[in-house]
Amino acid sequence: MTELVQIKQAVAPHEILLVADAMTGQDAVASSERFHQRVGVTGVILTKVEGDARGGAVLSIRAATGQPVKFLGVGEKLEALEPFHPDRLASRILGMGDVLSLIEKAQENFSLEEAETLQKKLASQSFTLEDFRDQMKQVTRMGSMEQLLGMLPGGQRLKEMTGSGVPEREMKRVVAIVDSMTTRERRDHTIISGSRKKRIAKGSGTTIPEVNRLIKQYLTARKMMKALSGGGGKRRLLEALRSM
Amino acid sequence: MLEGLSHKFESILKRLRGQGVLTEQNIGEALKDVRMALLEADVNFKVVKDFIDRVRVKAVGQEVLQSLTPGHQVVKIVWDELRELMGGAHAGLKLASSPPTVIMMVGLQGAGKTTTCGKLARLFKKQGRRVMLIAADPRRPAAGDQLASLGASIEVSVHRADRPAGTTTDIAALCAAGDCTLMMN
Ligand SMILES: Nc1nc2c(ncn2[C@@H]2O[C@H](COP(=O)(O)OP(=O)(O)OP(=O)(O)O)[C@@H](O)[C@H]2O)c(=O)[nH]1
Ligand SMILES: [Mg+2]
Which 17-46 residues of chain A touch chain B by CB within 8 A? Predict the structure, then answer.
């Protein structure tokens, strides 16, 4: 600690951020208090929060140190860092969801270009099964389904209903089915007849009802996105999500 | 993340919202459950006590009890207090008005300092800043190696000031360069 004080005096940093492991609960809080007393910190970053079911550190550290939490570490990967918003986390804790963070995550992970291409496709009715599959893949880029569901209002219950791991399996199923289609089928679902369905089911290791279900899902998605892309996008998306 | 706590809160508040008329007594019962939930979540004892006291004072007020939706009002009070407990408003990083901004990272062993340095460096770089990382732990050369490979993976330059002698002056000199500097201990 004396070395830290020496360095602090030598460089006069603008921020001294304390990094603490949220999984260690009250130990994290106690060590933060010590660091703050001896070195003087200006903010806190809590790490490993994604694996912390309890939240003791997140809820106590501000009161204990008087210093604000500025970021949360939510995974080992370098993009797993979230700015800390007390209001949003309060909503998440109360099961009201954190739709704003979800939208920001989406904006970070989908480029403007991708969004515009999608918009055009929807406008011209050319949103195909191929696009549907790519969308699914993009969603997985945003984080685990479990994490994303946790941000939706009532997401906790949704998670229990689907059982952990199922959404990911569902995602893989979608990709497998679409991959088993011919290019023509992917671009025009109306040509997919009974015999084609049989072939697709066989190729993807699924069943005909599952293929039917996927096509239905695709049509619903297309309809929903079309409704959302008609201006006032963000607000309407918010409303749609809230009503879930 | 925070599933355990969230789960308990959801069911406590659902019960509360479902009640047409609220009395001091059933608010008291709900608060007892909230208190238990927070303690089980390993929230500091004193913090829990203050939290419950604040919610109670607001919740048993006449405006709440006699309002049309007392349950919802109480949920709103709990939300307000949770937000306040976590600091109220969002606090961003304080950056220097003229570069470089120097950020020092401290924390217990294994807390995630090196990883978090990499995360912040990546973020700053995305914002178009010139970032530099400085390893400053003289006791563990391996830590500097870890930072070096992390920096390489995001194309951010890493400087070593983790030699046993002359560390502080080295660091001070290095910090003067760059646009945004993250320093690790
Ligand atoms: N799951 C998860 N793991 C994390 C997070 N942040 C860091 N870690 C992991 O925690 C471990 C320790 O991280 P480091 O960044 O090396 O920690 P450190 O504070 O630099 O450790 P020392 O230099 O040894 O004191 C590594 O395995 C990281 O991948 C996080 O937000 N979530
Ligand atoms: Mg380290």
Answer: 17-21, 25-26, 28-29, 31, 35, 39, 41-43, 45
Half-sphere exposure of B151 (CA within 13 A, CB side): 21
Q: What is the pLDDT of residues A152-186, one digit of tens each?
A: 766 666 666 555 555 677 778 888 999 999 999 99
Show residues of chain B in contact with A81, CB under 8 Å.
Answer: 116, 119-120, 123
Report the topology of domain A106-242.
434 Repressor (Amino-terminal Domain) (1.10.260)
pTM of the full structure: 0.75
Q: Which domains does chain B have, with CATH numbers?
A: 2-85 (1.20.120.140), 101-184 (3.40.50.300)
| pLDDT band at A205; cut points 50, 70, 90 | very high
Residues of A with Cβ-Cβ distance to B84 under 8 angstroms: 86
How many other C-beta atoms lie within 10 A of the C-beta of residue A224? 12
Q: Cβ neighbours of residue B113 under 8 Å, at least 6 residues apart?
A: A19, B105, B106, B107, B184, B185
Domain ranges of chain A: 2-94, 106-242
Write down the ipTM of this complex. Answer: 0.90
**Does A89 contact B at CB distance below 8 Å?**
yes
DSSP character for A95? T
Tell me which residue of B55, B135, B119 sits closest to A7, measured CA to CA: B135
What is the mean pLDDT of the segment spanning B73-87?
A: 91
Question: CATH fold of A2-94, please?
Answer: Rossmann fold (3.40.50)
Q: Is the dihedral of CA A170, A176, A182, A183 positive or negative?
A: positive
A69-73 β-sheet, strand order = A81-83, A69-73, A43-47, A15-21, B101-106, B180-184, B131-135, B157-160
